[in-house]
């Protein structure tokens, strides 16, 4: 599926999907598509958000918030509003943990949400209901109504946490803690989890509760799997029903890689992983029947899964020249975006439209911005 084609270098031709280097300032470390994928929000460490037209690769607008900074940018339900968290490295102590709703249309702060006491690690918008969820390094997670500055409910896990909401139904909230605990909550009332699991990470044994350097928690689009990336224990994929570890993939964990960002492809068939070596990896998310060795179904010469679909072997595209800090799948097209210390890139398989550039929203070839 992801025989990835490196996007065109910015400025290479008149019709490539590029953005001016004067507008996109590395490093960029968070990404978010709007509902139809026509816009990509890019969070920059300098304290700015750029909105990129994904069909042309051109920057539509840039908004700034130097005083608070920008992390975990994502689109709200309104197509021209973004949510993001303040950065602990940019903000004063009193401003750490703020969440902001910012209009891209007129560059105004619509609302500031107070409650968290440390850097925001995740923001997830509910699929259908007008609410969103946040997780923080302060060990708490919260649910918000964007019409009110006060949080509607909160929970605590006792260590830095990350979360995501089931994009299929919006009914399940997954919360991962830095101590290796994964918990599932009813997103409508999360006083207590209905399922918890202490994850058994790959690699050398570690004492229970050892910090894993949590980075990302992401649901697959079909709601069947959850991926968690960490700085110290690599990337794991778990079954969202039983919370069981699925498979022993070569990229779980990424040997020698102390940093990884992760998301599922838009059709949930592949894990998309960005590493600190600048690699972008695609790993099949397909699983063998219970009791069979997952590693036997990965790589060249592997058996064909039921239904005749070939497994996706690990694939590497050395597009980034610096660590990849964020990966985000396009919500509707067979494409995804990556951001790093060097640039922002949009990728799509060359089979979508061989030899073409731009037109990501329509499933065409890759473009880049930097």
How would you describe this structure to a colleague?
By secondary structure, the protein is mainly β. It has one domain: Methylamine Dehydrogenase, Chain H, CATH 2.130.10.10. Helix content is 0%, strand content 38%. The chain contains no helices and 27 strands. The radius of gyration is 19 Å and the shape is globular. The model is unreliable at 1-21, 247-256, 288-313 and 351-370 (pLDDT under 50).
Strand fraction equals 35-45%
- Let me know the number of strands: 27
Computed CA radius of gyration, to the nearest angstrom: 19 Å
CATH architecture verdict: 7 Propeller
Element string (H = helix, E = strand): EEEEEEEEEEEEEEEEEEEEEEEEEEE
Classify the helix fraction into a percent range: under 10%
The number of helical segments is 0
Helices and strands, with pairings:
Layout: E1 28-33, E2 39-44, E3 48-53, E4 59-64, E5 71-75, E6 81-85, E7 99-103, E8 109-113, E9 120-125, E10 132-136, E11 140-144, E12 151-156, E13 161-165, E14 172-177, E15 181-186, E16 195-198, E17 214-219, E18 225-230, E19 235-239, E20 260-264, E21 270-275, E22 280-284, E23 315-317, E24 324-329, E25 336-340, E26 344-347, E27 367-369
Antiparallel strand pairs: 1-2, 2-3, 3-4, 5-6, 6-7, 7-8, 9-10, 10-11, 11-12, 13-14, 14-15, 15-16, 17-18, 18-19, 20-21, 21-22, 22-23, 24-25, 25-26, 26-27
């Amino acid at each position: 599926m992801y025989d990835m084609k490196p996007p065109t270098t910015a400025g290479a031709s008149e019709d490539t999907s590029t953005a001016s280097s004067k507008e996109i300032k590395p490093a960029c470390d968070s990404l978010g598509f709007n509902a139809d994928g026509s816009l990509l929000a890019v969070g920059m460490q300098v304290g700015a958000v750029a909105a990129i037209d994904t069909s042309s690769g051109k920057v539509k607008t840039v908004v700034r918030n130097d005083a608070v900074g920008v992390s975990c940018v994502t689109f709200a339900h309104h197509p021209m509003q973004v949510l993001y968290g303040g950065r602990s490295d940019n903000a004063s102590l009193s401003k750490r943990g703020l969440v902001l709703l910012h209009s891209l249309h007129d560059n105004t702060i619509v609302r500031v949400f107070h409650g968290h006491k440390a850097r925001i690690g995740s923001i997830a918008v509910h699929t259908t209901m007008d609410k969103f969820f946040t997780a923080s390094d302060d060990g708490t997670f919260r649910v918000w109504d964007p019409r009110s500055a006060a949080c509607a409910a909160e929970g605590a896990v006792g260590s830095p946490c990350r979360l995501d909401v089931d994009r299929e139904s919006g009914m399940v909230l997954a919360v991962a803690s830095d101590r290796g605990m994964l918990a599932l909550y009813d997103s409508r009332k999360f006083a207590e989890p209905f399922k918890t699991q202490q994850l058994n990470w790959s690699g050398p044994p570690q004492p229970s509760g050892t910090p894993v350097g949590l980075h990302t928690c992401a649901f697959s689009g079909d709601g069947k799997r959850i991926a968690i990336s960490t700085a110290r224990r690599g990337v794991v994929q778990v079954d969202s029903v039983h919370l069981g570890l699925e498979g022993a993939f070569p990229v779980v964990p990424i040997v020698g890689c102390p940093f990884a960002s992760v998301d599922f492809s838009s059709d949930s068939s592949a894990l998309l992983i960005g590493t600190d070596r600048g690699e972008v990896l695609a790993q099949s998310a397909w699983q063998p029947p219970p009791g069979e060795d997952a590693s036997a179904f990965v790589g060249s010469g592997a058996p064909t899964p039921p239904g005749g679909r070939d497994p996706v072997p690990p694939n590497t595209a050395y597009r980034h020249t610096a660590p990849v800090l964020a990966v985000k799948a396009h919500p509707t097209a067979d494409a995804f975006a990556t951001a790093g210390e060097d640039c922002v890139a949009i990728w799509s398989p060359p089979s979508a439209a061989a030899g073409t550039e731009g037109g990501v929203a329509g499933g065409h070839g890759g473009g880049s911005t930097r």
